[in-house]
């Protein structure tokens, strides 16, 4: 039996079109606390060279710059980079944003003291290549710090709901595997020493489950794009499925949403 090679470039082209649809920063900006906690977990120091990979609108890069690090963000979605630049300018933070692929970073070997990613690099379709690139640009003795949604948490369930409507390309690993210790051990092996592995929770706060669903349909690019391919009746069914996701994780009793979403925070030192 012969296996069919995965066309990662075609997958990334499709992914990029998704992230450039909608207005993802309206979702991503609500996740800023994840980046602030990751910056503290990585013990960032003033003056360190810090790279935020798959930075989106720059949450981790901005967190690094607030700590007087020399911060750079890299992403392939130019609209998200533009919003990152706007955010940095509004906060008077010196952050450099560059266009680039997490699986082929346009940066020299061993050029950063700290490499961060908050729910970003996990979406690179070729997991091993992305992990290798994180290692390549990190200095020996430098730190790699990642925050990734777990398979069993709320966002993992959100992705499973989405895949019912749009199955992923054959052979491509789930992004939420980055939220498991075993997968990280497989990706990085003995090239790093894991110094901290912590399960955390982010709380999604919305007016109602329906508000959550509509916010993601309107703004979360891949979901916006998928919804746009459905007819009216299926759009309503899809939105109802999305609204069911936070209900299972919601602890609010006042009709609003306060839904816990588990993610894995990891810090490792490159050997």
Report on the architecture of this protein.
Residues 51-145 form the Methyltransferase type domain. It holds the Pfam family Methyltransf_11. The structure is a single chain. By secondary structure, the protein is an alpha/beta fold. Helices cover 42% and strands 24% of the residues. The chain contains eleven helices and seven strands. It has helices spanning 8-19, 25-28, 32-41, 59-66, 78-90, 127-137, 154-165, 181-188, 209-219, 221-228, 232-247, and strands at residues 49-53, 70-75, 95-99, 112-118, 138-149, 192-206, 257-270. A seven-stranded mixed sheet has the order 3-2-1-4-5-7-6, with helices on both faces. α1 packs across α10 (221-228), α3 crosses α4 and α9 packs across α10. The radius of gyration is 18 Å and the shape is globular. The model has no long low-confidence stretch (mean pLDDT 97).
Q: Give the terminus-to-terminus CA distance.
A: 39 Å
Uncertain regions spanning at least 5 consecutive residues:
none
Note the overall shape.
globular
Give the rounded overall mean pLDDT. Answer: 97
Domain Methyltransferase type: 51-145
Protein name: Class I SAM-dependent methyltransferase
Pfam family, one: Methyltransf_11
GO molecular function, one term: S-adenosylmethionine-dependent methyltransferase activity
